[in-house]
Amino acid sequence: MPEPVRQLYPWPGDALELSSGHTLHYLDLGSGEPVVMVHGNPTWSFYWRTLAAPLSSTHRIVVPDHIGSGLSDKPQDYSYRLQDHIDNLVELIEHLDLSGITMVVHDWGGPIGLGAALVVPDRITRLVIFNTSVFLEHVPLSIRMARWPGVGEALVRGLNGFARAGLIRAIGDRGRMRGAIRQGYLAPYGSYHDRIAHLRFIRDIPVEPDHPTHATIARLHEGVPRTFAETPTMLIWGDRDFVFTPRFLGQWQELMPHAEVHRFPDAAHWVVEDAHERILPLMEAFLQGTTQEGSTTQEGSTTQEGSTTQEG
Known about the structure:
Layout: H1 3-8, E1 14-17, E2 23-29, E3 34-38, H2 49-55, E4 60-64, H3 82-96, E5 101-105, H4 109-119, E6 124-130, H5 141-145, H6 151-158, H7 161-169, H8 179-186, H9 196-203, H10 214-227, E7 233-238, H11 246-255, E8 260-264, H12 271-287, E9 296-298
Parallel strand pairs: 3-4, 3-5, 5-6, 6-7, 7-8, 8-9
Antiparallel strand pairs: 1-2, 2-4
């Protein structure tokens, strides 16, 4: 790990040998009620660093790297299906015997983290959902192209195109994506070998109804709102996301009408990178149980239940 990145991400982490025989890297910081933060693709636990560090002063923060991501093993003969990642996260939760969990999810971490929550619902106390989906929706052409035979291998694995594109398209304020932060997102993915999960995640998007992961997503779409209808939930959204547009947020609000909602019009897909300074106090208040159920805000401003404010 380059030294500038290590200064931003100073934790060696822990390792769990999974029942599959592969090693899962994870952070386990602080003590208190557990908060499990689940990243997406093509990021890794580095994505959560700006929230994990301060929140670890009051909570136990557990942040895994999925198999194929970050500092976890990157096997070349692994299936990399959504269900595999769900199973791995459940195994970690049970290994650490976590209960009273606040599950925090983003991107692919949404179906993974919420899928795990459905397996162990009695261990879940709160949900925090950042730009993600458990819906069967249209996939942008730029991502569909990466699924084409030969194209994905060349662009995603050969040229590291998916991760590099994220540094531009997934951020609202590109001035933030410089120096060690830019290095940090790319550091674990320096070779063709290391980028296998980038492509496998893309190919696991269930575009076709007969795709193996289609049934898993459908189960989440039905099960999450039913199982967590009364679970305190916060939705945090970057409105400039080119994949998970505000339309997805609207679907979440229909499924989880009790959720507290915070929108950031200037933030994009990597909303935590764009707006962590404004997100942290929202997270702290939510974890302390001082938030107002059902409220909707922009830029973290205070509103009455069910109302919406516009900034600027």
